[in-house]
Amino acid sequence: MVLNFGAVLSVNAGEAKPMTVQGETITTGFDKRPIDGAVQVEASGLVTDDHVDDADDLDRALLFYQRSYYDSWNNELGRELPHGTFGENLTIEGPEDDKVMLGDELCIGEVRLRVTQPRIPCRKMAVRLGHEGFPSRYLRSRRVGFFCSVMEPGLVRSGDKIELVHRVEDGISMADLARVLHLEPPNVESLNRVLACFALPPALRTKAEKLLRRAQGDDGAWSGDRALLVTARRREAVEVVSLDLADPEGTRLPDFEAGQFLTLSLDVPGADKPLVRTYTLVGRSEDGHGYRIAVKREPAPADSPDVPAGIASGHLHAAVGVGSQLLARAPRGRFAVKPGHRPVVLISAGIGITPMLAMLEHLAAQKRKSGRPVHFVHGARSSHELAFGAHVRRLVASSELLHSHLLFSRPAPEDVLGRHFDEAGRVTPAVLERILPSLEADYYVCGPAEFMADIVTGLIHRGVPLNQVHYEFFGAARSLLGEEKTEDGPVATGADGRPIVVTFARSGIAVPWRKNTFSLLALAEQAGLRPEASCRTGLCGACVSRIDDGEVEYAIDPMYGVQPGQVTVCCARPSTSVMIDL
Ligand SMILES: Cc1cc2nc3c(=O)[nH]c(=O)nc-3n(C[C@H](O)[C@H](O)[C@H](O)COP(=O)(O)OP(=O)(O)OC[C@H]3O[C@@H](n4cnc5c(N)ncnc54)[C@H](O)[C@@H]3O)c2cc1C
Ligand code: FES
């Protein structure tokens, strides 16, 4: 069988160059330009291309991108993109992704290739296109292109014909593969279809198997809400209680990563719908089978004492005790200790101690294997407000690799320096510089927003690379590096050159979308609305709203799958004028 597949319009290659991606400088050959004449193709790809990105992955030797997709992007973006913009090796005239099948074999002259996988964009594309949300938009556009491995080497040049020489019967298209593995919530039937494909490369097979386990509930996680029984309740500090949660049948609850949280749906009297709130897992319950969370009663803000105090935390303090049942979604979250060799510094204040405690436990359990020194630095007002102080001391005493430094900003009369705390004052970058043997470390930060801004900017100004500083907000997320000037930023325009306007339909408010605003949720809050939200990172589903008109793209890809016509406003940005049901 030999069928016409298309033609090579340009052969593009890139030199390895430094590129700054999310604060980290990497070397990449992403920036590709068309080159003249015939170019040799070997198993690793074009010989003229600097293979720094996928050097070892022969299944991704050559990236193809279709001309018809360039036409669509040029139209949408209102500019003429040169071939090579998307980092592809070959810009081709040829079928779209729904007509390109996994395992298809193509010939370009003597070069024989096999189609291996759809292209999934990375952060480098955001830098190349000058738009942070572009990779997500690219994926959702379903104009992704595809990779080939090289079966027979040879020469390619622009103008060459491409022939389809072999097609696998009942195969799966690149469009379907991208949809099943990257766009839709895991689905057993679709994943089984993917796994049945003989030509599936090992990396994709591993991914599909993992998704299948999740879809079948075999990864330990559960989908939707699950009733958990409160088996113990303890006062950990003056405004903090911990709750032990167990499966009512006594089944051991699945493992979680230190730093992840549970999402609770709370029926609070007087609220017209369940309140969704997230609480970090501080560890396992006493018997090792359940979970423990710790909840701080949230007071009204100091500058607005007349507004009501926190509803969900107030309810958990006042009305939830041993024997109560709570509805919880499975542990989720990306704030977890990354593997590595650098020392780890865990920095927290107030209730921000919860993920740090889980991480300290995890690192303490790993200490011999990892050999990483760990510094736990925490600030509280006094021993009355300090939760889990004794637990931290016990853990730290278990290994020479673990260290702690506790600061009290207003020690109580009975607090003894050297016994109950190590220093009077607050945690600041200057304190860190003084107490840490070196600033070369991986940092994890959690606490009130002002505290986080101070610590994170302080570390960056002292030369700690951004990619070594990780943080999590318990409330409204904000930029910590001062680049998010929202209220006075320039108004963004759509492809038609007109200002992008966001209409919050239920509230009857229409506001311009300004560049650098983080998300539709942030815009709604600036407009004085208080939409439901909790994790603010696309994980819990609390902020999912109806979108009645327009299109969005995602700054962070939400892990919480939404139905058509819905949007996860905490991490979405409008790409056209939109109407949201808020
Ligand atoms: C990833 C993550 C992990 C978390 N982990 C923990 C944890 O381990 N422990 C923990 O205690 N919390 C944690 N939180 C925070 C928790 O999810 C809740 O946000 C917190 O308990 C407050 O919820 P609430 O319903 O009590 O307060 P809300 O009712 O949501 O109120 C929040 C604040 O807004 C104020 N407020 C109310 N009305 C107004 C108004 N009209 N105008 C202005 N302000 C107003 C309230 O007084 C209060 O100060 C976490 C959050 C996230 C995102
Ligand atoms: S607030 Fe959790 S998904 Fe948006």
Describe this structure in words.
This protein has 582 residues and is an alpha+beta fold. The chain folds into four domains: 3-215, M1 Pyruvate Kinase, Domain 3; 226-332, Elongation Factor Tu (Ef-tu), domain 3 (Beta Barrel); 344-472, Nucleotide-binding domain of ferredoxin-NADP reductase (FNR) module (Rossmann fold, 3-Layer(aba) Sandwich), CATH 3.40.50.80; 501-580, Roll (Ubiquitin-like (UB roll)), CATH 3.10.20. The protein has twelve helices and 32 strands. The strands form seven sheets. A seven-stranded mixed β-barrel has the order 1-8-7-11-10-9-13. Flavin-adenine dinucleotide binds at residues 261, 275, 277-280, 294-296, 298, 300-301, 304, 307-314, 351, 354, 472, 474-475, 530, 534-536.
Overall pLDDT level: 89
Please report the distance between the alpha carbons of the first and last residues: 56 Å
Total of DSSP H or I helical runs spanning 4+ residues: 12
CATH-level-4 superfamily name of the largest domain: PK beta-barrel domain-like
Q: What is the domain tally?
A: 4
Classify the secondary structure makeup into a structural class.
Answer: alpha+beta
CATH topology of the largest domain, which one?
M1 Pyruvate Kinase, Domain 3
Cα-based radius of gyration, to the nearest Å? 27 Å
Biggest sheet, spatial arrangement of strands: 1-8-7-11-10-9-13
From the spread of the alpha carbons, the general shape counts as globular
Task: Just give the CATH class of the largest domain.
Answer: Mainly Beta
Low-confidence stretches: none
Number of strands: 32
CATH architecture of the largest domain, by name, is Beta Barrel
**Largest sheet features:** 7 strands, mixed, barrel
The distinct bound ligands, ions and cofactors come out as: flavin-adenine dinucleotide, FE2/S2 (inorganic) cluster
Percent range of helical residues: 10-25%
Q: Which percent band covers the strand fraction? A: 25-35%
